[in-house]
Amino acid sequence: MLTRLWPGGYLVPRTEAVSAATEELERDGVTLVKKALDGDELIALRDEIAAVYDSTGPDYRDASGERAWSNDFRYEMFNRSPLAQKAALRREILDVIEPLIGEDCHIIANTCWRNPPAEGSTHGGGNWHIDAGPHIPLRDDQHWPQELPHPVFAVGVHLYLEDCPLASGATAVIPGSHTSGRPPPQDRIADVDLTWREVGARTLEAEAGDVAFFVSDVWHRRLPPEESHPGRFFLQIHYGRRDIAQRVKATHQLNHVDEPAMQRIDSDRERLLLGLHVQGFYDG
Fold first, then answer.
1. Strand ranges inside the chain, DSSP E
2. What is the predicted pLDDT for the residue at 230?
3. pTM summary value
4. Nearest partner of 43 among 89, 105, 87, 95, judged by Cα
5. Which residues pair with 30 in a beta bridge?
């Protein structure tokens, strides 16, 4: 747990009490808060985001162009939906994450998912993966000390706009795997029985208005949906520490490179050095 110390702005250990959800998120890399949003607020948010889908086409965010699942997503949601912007500010969310990534944490990505009723999973989220990192890579012969809290650098949040039962392909998370210092084993990315230190997956079955939290380094995936299911609809908000760059817009759209410097670039390494990166997971 941490907090910012002013003046100076340095991070120091937090001494104040935190919620059980925050403790679970730090320990297990995952937690679920029930009914953070309900009633008319939830309906209004859902309807406003649905209208974004109705009024705009798919966002093609990478060089591959159109894909079968491109229409499932809408990016930059706080720019497109006033209610999505305010939902990201709710204390039911910030009270959980601020003790882990700071009171000045910010949104690094903000994407809505609306996976339609369909058989199977058509995008990479259907296999075990991590969203970033691992932020502290470890060799196979190294293990994070269990008595030492693992630092958190970024947190993914799913605010569910509709119920997400197991049949819809609910998100599964392997508790504690954020401390592994490695991505999921590539030869088992589709294995629903994958474990870390003999701990298997926790399934985040959710109701509309619930909020799921998971550390960016934790192993997670969408479970295989049943042949007949209602789909998934949730607002995804990624929060990061102040010193982690925002990725809401891709670097070719928004960067710190003036045109003369852009024209002087003559290698791929120089592009990366100046911050013009290939698009990654958080770019949206």
1. 2-5, 10-13, 30-33, 73-74, 106-115, 154-160, 171-173, 202-203, 211-215, 220-222, 232-240
2. 86
3. 0.92
4. 87
5. 214
